[in-house]
Amino acid sequence: MIIGMLGLAPVRRVEEVAGGYVVYVQPPALVGKYPEVSVKLTPDQYARYQEWLMGSLMIQDALPELSPSTREMLMTGLGDEDFHRIARDPDED
Description:
Helix content: 25-40%
Low-confidence stretches: none
Largest sheet: 3 strands, antiparallel
Number of strands: 3
Order of helices and strands: HEEEHHHH
Strand content: 15-25%
Number of domains: 1
Radius of gyration: 14 Å
Structural class: alpha+beta
């Protein structure tokens, strides 16, 4: 996939664990080196997560019970601090 090769997409992997799944997300290489994040999902949440990945649902509709921060981690692989560091306005310094 070209997007993945350009470093524009996060890298995801999934492990099945007792009671559900753990989704690991590594931020896109384009944003720099950041640690991989993980989110544990129930089987039902994981099924809805997959629907979001396929483009059937928006993430807030697929997983409304998760916090916006947790959904951001699933989308980008960035935790709150890292997201704010990247998205901040440089003129605010």
